[in-house]
């Protein structure tokens, strides 16, 4: 791209020179294109005061050099700026008035420089592209070998704008979706435990009756052993023997056992007689071998004498020690 195509003034001069040397038919076509494109400057509304639009700043308005400047219209790139200029004026994106859009685009760049804002290089590249397209539209188109005219120089730019508009619309649609942590929030919800019920199996009645019969048979085979409490204790039987000896000083040992009480009664009577002998309350006497055994009550004097002898023996043992 040459410098003549980048600069607006040089582009206009080049276009006028080309028009002067072109054929009459070419001049007429160029004049029709120039008439169809409005070159009037677009007046932007700065503010509304009581319903009246203000397009120019008052001459006596003083703005300090260090005043706060706020610029609300920001664009993500040159395509975004072009799309904004086209949509703001309801222009057909397939038939872009390049001269009008180029003028507004250059005014925006000039405004950015006046506000001392840094512009990326892609904005300047787009400005050069617009000037090139504008120049090519003003010049007559060359016919190709097959007789077809040269393609519209705006075609590639229109395709880029259409593709950018689709992606921008998709991004806006995605941005309107509810965002996690902003529009929607997660709730910690605990589900109550769900009881799991099992259906009973389908069992025929005959099987239940057979199982019940087997249980009854097992009960009969394994009878539990019942432990019964003794009707008499050893201490009670000792008391009974002492009462009998108080009435009868001598008792036959065989008469102490009652066969009606069974084996437990014999054991209790035998243990009771042994406890009485151990406590030296009775004596057991047998006059000859294999003779009858008799239970004889000790007199109180004998019990006291035995107790005294036991005490003296203990004292002598302690003295010897």
What does this structure look like?
- By secondary structure, the chain is mostly helical.
- Among the domains are: 141 residues, no CATH class; 80 residues, Orthogonal Bundle (Arc Repressor Mutant, subunit A), CATH 1.10.10.580.
- The chain is built from 11 helices and 5 strands.
- The strands form 2 sheets. The chain has a 3-stranded antiparallel beta sheet with strand order 3-5-4. A two-stranded antiparallel sheet has the order 1-2.
- A hairpin with a 2-residue loop joins strand 1 and strand 2.
- It is rod-shaped, with a radius of gyration of 65 Å.
- The N terminus and C terminus are likely disordered.
Task: Write the topology of this structure.
Blueprint: H1 3-6, H2 8-21, H3 24-36, E1 47-49, E2 52-54, H4 78-88, H5 98-114, H6 121-138, H7 155-175, H8 205-221, H9 234-247, E3 250-252, H10 262-278, E4 282-285, E5 294-297, H11 300-320
Helix pairs in contact: 2-6, 4-7, 5-6, 9-10
Summarize the structure.
The chain has 321 residues and is mostly helical. It has helices at residues 3-6, 8-21, 24-36, 78-88, 98-114, 121-138, 155-175, 205-221, 234-247, 262-278, 300-320, and strands at residues 47-49, 52-54, 250-252, 282-285, 294-297.
